[in-house]
Design a protein that fits this description.
Number of domains: 2
Strand content: 5-15%
Helix content: 40-55%
Distance between the termini: 38 Å
Order of helices and strands: HHHEHEHEHEEHEHEHHHH
Largest sheet: 7 strands, parallel
CATH class of the largest domain: Alpha Beta
Number of helices: 12
Radius of gyration: 21 Å
CATH superfamily of the largest domain: P-loop containing nucleotide triphosphate hydrolases
CATH topology of the largest domain: Rossmann fold
Shape: globular
CATH architecture of the largest domain: 3-Layer(aba) Sandwich
Length: 309
């Protein structure tokens, strides 16, 4: 209860401890999120994704500064790649956002992916609940930056921003179908580089191939130079405009709720299957039979499901 009260009051030490608990994936984490969930749901959740080196952290830093100008509290979850040797993360985003370290209105947390695919850490959704319940008006999730596969952000954020830069080889190839489909706002950063207009034009052309209903949100393509702040206000305006699209926002939150629930059900089912009495024994027997070529995996799965009904 003491930790719960600390998070609700926005105490940064309590927030840090709460996120550490959900990262540990312990029973205590589920108890804490059960308490905090009904206190959340007020923040706008902004996802920022893109390949490494496009300037995501710099853009987040500039956006946070502008949100603070109007007294919005900002929580930032920067997901960093996990070391295959130590299991830890470089946590470089905290270094790049030093300008906000003395500001109690900005909370920056780096999270290791711990092998999770899709560009996000396993505990990201729970960390969002914690920052939301702690009174942050905006929660920004900066994904790991692994390329075309990091589409989980669309299941977690209210608005997804895809950042790219000119001169990254074949510009069209940097934005494959999955990334194009999750983007609510596209940002061509580092416009001081040659070819920025061409990159923006190619993204617009690709978006032109998609079909949008009359009432649907049509993703804008914006130009920024985050290092100087140029164009950042345009990004803020686009986020604000998207946030007023109540239908899109409602649909996004329904999708997020469904994805989160299915994820928890999946994890709970697998955990119980692996450790639970007769079901655990049935799993071990099925694995042995598959390895010896006595049964195929689909039949084995059907047999296990039959025993669980």
């Amino acid at each position: 209860m003491e930790l719960f009260e600390g998070v609700i009051k926005g105490d940064q030490r309590a927030i840090a401890r709460a996120i550490s608990i959900v990262e540990s994936d312990s029973i205590e984490a589920a108890v804490l999120i059960k308490q905090l969930f009904l206190k959340s749901g007020h923040a706008i959740i902004v996802g920022i994704t893109g390949a490494p080196g496009v300037g995501k952290s710099t853009l987040v830093d500039r956006l946070a500064a502008e949100w603070r100008r109007v007294d919005n509290r900002v929580g930032i979850l920067a997901v960093d790649p996990t070391s295959p040797f130590s299991g830890g993360a470089i946590l470089g985003d905290r270094v790049r956002m030093q300008a906000h370290t003395a500001d109690d209105g900005v909370y920056v947390r780096s999270m290791a992916t711990r092998g999770q695919l899709g560009g996000l850490a396993h505990a990201t959704s729970d960390a969002v609940v914690i920052l939301d319940a702690a009174g942050h008006d905006v929660v920004v999730i900066e994904t790991v930056g692994v390329g075309q596969g990091e589409v989980d952000i669309a299941k977690t954020a209210d608005v997804s921003i895809v950042v790219t830069v000119p001169g990254a080889g074949d510009d069209v190839q940097t934005l494959k179908a999955g990334i194009m489909e999750i983007g609510d706002i596209f940002v061509v950063n580092k416009t001081d580089y040659a070819g920025a207009d061409r990159t923006a034009g190619e993204i617009k052309a690709m978006l032109g191939l998609q079909e949008f209903s009359e009432s649907a949100w049509k993703p804008p393509v914006l130009m920024t130079q985050a290092s100087t702040g140029e164009g950042v206000l345009d990004v803020l305006e686009a986020i604000s405009q998207f946030d007023t699209q109540k239908t899109d926002k409602r649909d996004r939150r329904l999708t997020r709720a469904r994805s989160r629930l299915l994820g928890i059900l999946r994890d709970t089912f697998i955990e119980r299957l692996e450790v639970g009495g007769k079901s655990g024994e049935a799993l071990s027997n099925a694995v042995k039979e598959i390895s010896e070529g006595l049964v195929d995996p689909y039949t084995a799965a059907e047999q296990i499901m039959g025993k669980l009904q």
